[in-house]
Amino acid sequence: MTRNIILRDHVRAGILDVAATVLAERGTSVSMTDIAQAAGVARATLYRYFPNRDALLYALYEAALSDLTRRLNDARLDSVPIEEAVARMTRATIAATGRYRALGLFEKAPREARRMERQLAAPLRAVFERGAASGAFRRDMPVHTLAELYFSLLEGVVSRVIRHRLSVEEASAYATTLFLSGALAAPPAPPPTATSTATSAGSTTASSTAVPGAVPGAVPSAGSPSSG
Amino acid sequence: MTRNIILRDHVRAGILDVAATVLAERGTSVSMTDIAQAAGVARATLYRYFPNRDALLYALYEAALSDLTRRLNDARLDSVPIEEAVARMTRATIAATGRYRALGLFEKAPREARRMERQLAAPLRAVFERGAASGAFRRDMPVHTLAELYFSLLEGVVSRVIRHRLSVEEASAYATTLFLSGALAAPPAPPPTATSTATSAGSTTASSTAVPGAVPGAVPSAGSPSSG
Amino acid sequence: MTRNIILRDHVRAGILDVAATVLAERGTSVSMTDIAQAAGVARATLYRYFPNRDALLYALYEAALSDLTRRLNDARLDSVPIEEAVARMTRATIAATGRYRALGLFEKAPREARRMERQLAAPLRAVFERGAASGAFRRDMPVHTLAELYFSLLEGVVSRVIRHRLSVEEASAYATTLFLSGALAAPPAPPPTATSTATSAGSTTASSTAVPGAVPGAVPSAGSPSSG
Amino acid sequence: MTRNIILRDHVRAGILDVAATVLAERGTSVSMTDIAQAAGVARATLYRYFPNRDALLYALYEAALSDLTRRLNDARLDSVPIEEAVARMTRATIAATGRYRALGLFEKAPREARRMERQLAAPLRAVFERGAASGAFRRDMPVHTLAELYFSLLEGVVSRVIRHRLSVEEASAYATTLFLSGALAAPPAPPPTATSTATSAGSTTASSTAVPGAVPGAVPSAGSPSSG
DNA sequence: CATGAATGAGCCTTCATTCAT
DNA sequence: AATGAATGAAGGCTCATTCAT
Q1: For chain C, where are the E strands, in sequence order?
Q2: How many Cβ atoms sit within 10 Å of the Cβ of residue D8?
Q3: How far apart are CA A171 and CA A156, in angstroms?
Q4: How far apart are CA A69 and CA A63, in angstroms?
Q5: Which residues are A184's β-sheet partners?
Q6: Domain co-membership, D93 together with D44
């Protein structure tokens, strides 16, 4: 009796696995026929496990989220320095979402899943909050925006992982590095002047001035002393 | 005579405009019916202007690319410092591609458009080459990868512009700033004082080695004693 | 005033002419667009002359029938021997229907045209009646059937004329010859037996016996003496 | 398992049967909707059996051709006298093509079917060759033309069979008789008695010259004193 | 009057889904 | 429980027809 249930769960997981792969490879346009065929079952059988297409997608969503949740829990983000936390969560996210990207994770989740996602996003947001609070992050842009930029970067990188333009390893490392440190080479030797340590926004020396139009007009407090 | 042609072109442009919006908002899955409806014309009329769906998508491509080309030409990227060049090309790209993102610009363009796109990408790549050659860009990752990361960031940001989570201005400024300067606050020259190891890790100066688990070489969580 | 009407009629005739050609060449599936294009006018103009597709087809039908009627009248079928009459009506029909064959003349005429057609068929039927009455035609099959066979042959031949497999001349001559004389070479020298002149059915000597299964079983009075 | 396949084949054959009827009756313009409706299945079901319209038509071709091939083989055309051979092949062709006439057999077959058709036409042509070689056929027209006339006659007759104007039996018998013997009553050897010029003109014996305006050479109304 | 533009209806095809075995 | 078969709905496209210039 229980055996069957167990077996059934395994089959279900298998189908889900195949579906994730197919979807990631060929996009959201794959049909139920495609998925069933890839999974080696009849279409009708597929419908036994997932009453309809949305259910399948939703299940994939759940799988992706639980996968990510597990990885993030394992990462113990709050027990390590902010840089390490970012590195870990980047890796975890890329690894977990790579297979599910067709779902548009972080992007166009089904209405019902929004709640789960927000709940899941918590640990990620926490890292940002901590980074902001600890002064580790620049203060010339709202932490919320910083997070958005981070997710933006992740999405793009994930899509490149899927298209085999980057490996998970590369993608994780590069994305972390870019996000944390920035692209501009640091100035050779900054004159040991003021205690600008706190308002590190303009850090890369010429940055706040050398990057004209980057934070144009009234963009939030670029390196202003009021932040702190 | 000419009037009609002009009018026709305007109508065509109008339809294209609507199509871009609808596609950007609802994804590539929108049907010709949807587009025609959104444009307020009958489906058959839509087909008068674009003989088939692909023709419509291709026209959108052309529009996006020519728009972007014009903006990049206007930007005179090679006549300004690298930072300004990045700022300008970021703004230009976001402004131009925002409406066409559903097409997956830089991603899955139709065969024929690939050529145009590559040709168009030239000025962008040129900026990266210049940045690398002039030593303005960090040297711990290949310029090619840097470009990929930049495009990744852009894509994500563009999608947020479309979903009205960011304005074009904000998106441009923030993306530029993040890409150029980085997210971590980095003191100009951290006096070898305190246990700043944790926070100052991502110092842009020695970034390539200071960011744990980030740099290509010794990729996963390197240098972080807490990882384990 | 009248000028215009005259001109209009000419244009109309021209269109009809082109339409006939196009229809004959490419079949009934040609669109109004095709016809308008071939005629060098706009589709809307075509509709000025013929309110709808059926009207055009019907007009073509009328043209074909009146053409045929004229030719048959000119042929004075009842003033010449039966053989000559057949020859003439064959030629007239092939010449007249060649251009209109797509209409399925004698085959799938529009309901309303049936009447006209039947009226037109009169002179043709008359020839058969005369041939039967005069004893010129074989008596082992009903004259009605003979007529059907004749029309069958004509249809096929006409289709070949249209496809340029036969010229009008060839087609007329061959069809007439075959229909009148038959395909089997006549026996060298028939024993000068009886006065079988009247019941000429078995004419080609061995025909009624040599053509086994041709008029099989109870097929109408094959050379039987009861016919007369 | 096998049951299903068998059943499926039967259903397929049934659909094909219905399709043949509908096509024969209403012409090639019938839509898939029409066919599905006539067959009593949903359009989508129709597509289960035939992936597209062309596939259906092609299947009909195959059916018609294989049917005809079988019949012709059974007829053993080369083992019987020419007259019997013609009688058999006429019957076989009419019986086999009657249901498929809308396909325009011998007329506008799809490219791939041309080959099959030509291969199939071989036995028919062989009969004509034999007839010509043996001197059984008249010599005043090329055997190729004779064949064309024969097919012309067949086509027309077949169309009448479809429209229920003739039964297969009647059509076969009459067509054979007409083709073989001719329509004109021809006295075995007209004693040079009376003014039989008019009636006996088409005498099969000297037919080639006797039929006015019929024979290729001196085509139009030749030898008829009344023509002018 | 001639014409370009607009449109409703219909066709071919595919897909997600249900049903009976 | 698994599956082949059946189907309604929708998508892309064309065509005959109407309208306003």
Answers
A1: none
A2: 12
A3: 10
A4: 10
A5: B137
A6: no
Helices C168-181/D143-162 angle, 10° precision: 80
Q: D70-121 pLDDT, tens per residue? A: 899 999 999 999 989 999 999 998 888 766 765 554 445 556 666 776 777 7
Cβ(A88)–Cβ(A126) below 8 Å: no
Residue type at A112 in one-letter notation = E
D106 burial class (0-12, 13-18, 19+ CB within 10 angstroms)? buried
pLDDT digits (tens, 9 = 90+) for A6-60: 877 888 999 999 998 888 888 788 899 999 999 999 999 999 999 999 889 888 8
**CATH code of C95's domain:** 1.10.357.10
Locate tokens 């077949």: which residue?
D158
Give the neighbours of chain B: at least 3 Cβ pairs within 8 Å: A
Q: Rounded to whole angstroms, how far apart are CA atoms C12 and C24?
A: 18
Write out chain B residues lying below 8 Å of A217, CB-based.
169
Residues with Cβ < 8 Å from B6, sequence gap 6 or more? none
C172: which 2 tokens?
């007329």
State the nearest residue by CA to the C1' of F21. Answer: B4
Domain enclosing residue A42, as ranges: 1-50
User: A194 — phi, psi (to 5°)?
Assistant: -85, 180
Check residue B189 and give left, alpha or beta (phi > 0: left; psi -120 to 50: alpha).
beta
Domain end position, chosen among A150, A167, A182: A182
Task: Read off the pLDDT band of C108 (50, 70, 90).
Answer: low
Dihedral pair phi/psi, residue A198, rounded to 5°? -65, -60
**Cβ of B10 near strand E (distance < 7 A):** no
Q: pLDDT for D146-161, tens place per residue?
A: 888 998 898 888 888 8
Taking the C-alpha atoms of residue C57 and residue C62, their distance in angstroms, rounded to an integer, is 9
Nearest-Cα distance to chain D for C48, in Å, is 26
Residue A178, min C-alpha distance to chain B (Å) = 7
Q: What total of structural domains would you count in chain D? A: 2
Q: Is residue C4 part of a domain?
A: yes
pLDDT at A109 over 80: no
User: What is the distance of C-alpha B58 from the center of its chain?
Assistant: 19
d(CA C148, CA B181): 94
Distance, in Å, from the CA atom of A215 to the CA atom of A222, rounded to the nearest integer, reads 7
D220 → closest Cβ in C91, C140, C184: C91
User: b/e per residue, D111-125, with b = 16+ CB within 10 A?
Assistant: eebeebbeebeebbe
* Residue C201 vs residues A67, C132, C191, C208, D224: alpha-carbon distances, Å: 94, 12, 16, 8, 24
Q: Look at residue B7 and tell me if it is in a domain.
A: yes
Residue B182 has its nearest CB partner, among A170, A180, A210, at A180
CA distance A8 to chain B (A): 33
Contact yes or no for A181 and B184 at CB 8 A: yes
Taking the C-alpha atoms of residue B26 and residue A48, their distance in angstroms, rounded to an integer, is 30
Phi, psi angles (nearest 5°) of residue C20: -60, -45
F17 C1' to B46 CA distance, Å = 17
The answer to whether residue D172 is domain-embedded is: yes
Rg (CA), chain C: 22
Among the partner-chain residues C79, C192, C216, the one whose CB lies closest to the CB of D226 is C79
For strand E, the positions having any atom within 7 A of a protein Cβ are: 1-20
Question: Residues B168, B94: contact at Cβ < 8 Å?
Answer: yes
